[in-house]
Amino acid sequence: xxxxxxxxxxxxxxxxxxxxxxxxxxxxxxxxxxxxxxxxxxxxxxxxxxxxxxxxxxxxxxxxxxxxxxxxxxxxxxxxxxxxxxxxxxxxxxxxxxxxxxxxxxxxxxxxxxxxxxxxxxxxxxxxxxxxxxxxxxxxxxxxxxxxxxxxxxxxxxxxxxxxxxxxxxxxxxxxxxxxxxxxxxxxxxxxxxxxxxxxxxxxxxxxxxxxxxxxxxxxxxxxxxxxxxxxxx
Length: 234
Description:
Layout: H1 16-37, H2 53-74, H3 77-108, H4 121-128, H5 130-142, H6 150-175, H7 181-184, H8 188-217, H9 219-225
Organism: Cylindrodendrum hubeiense
Transmembrane segments: 16-36, 48-73, 85-105, 125-143, 150-168, 188-213
GO cellular component, one term: membrane
């Protein structure tokens, strides 16, 4: 199948594109395997580890890269387009997760995880940095430019943010505690602000990724693509 002229490297392909997607799936799968061996109250709680936004983001990353592998092996356009559709939200979400996690962890790690829980460095990086790196590389090197407008990203991220809030409150109603200690410290109004702010961060992250893509792959041409919302690869 033909690829977009702004796309840096050939994808789908059974070479570098397949290698990146296989490495990503291996990393994400290892993280899920780790969760099955990590004994914490979350292992038996309502919602399991899916109470964490990190794990929801990891799931979307795994889905995107699994679709990428299918596209690489079969060259079926539908798989490639599906991978890119998932990545449109998964990539900026993972970037925001990484920024928020490491930023808050630097300030006060107890806001993210109780003191009696701890992750080794390899697992910590695997959950909170590797997905953002893999997805960003896939965007810049192996994907056509995103043409979804900012208001589309904001709408999707806002729906996701408040759906996640509903999910967190549902889990709280069953478990009696929140996944992140930070949530315990916030009032309802403050949580509304937090989730709205997070949706805004995902939108800003998406715009930033588009800018990086344009700088690497051709600024003027990428800027023109922004005026063709949801255009498919020819």
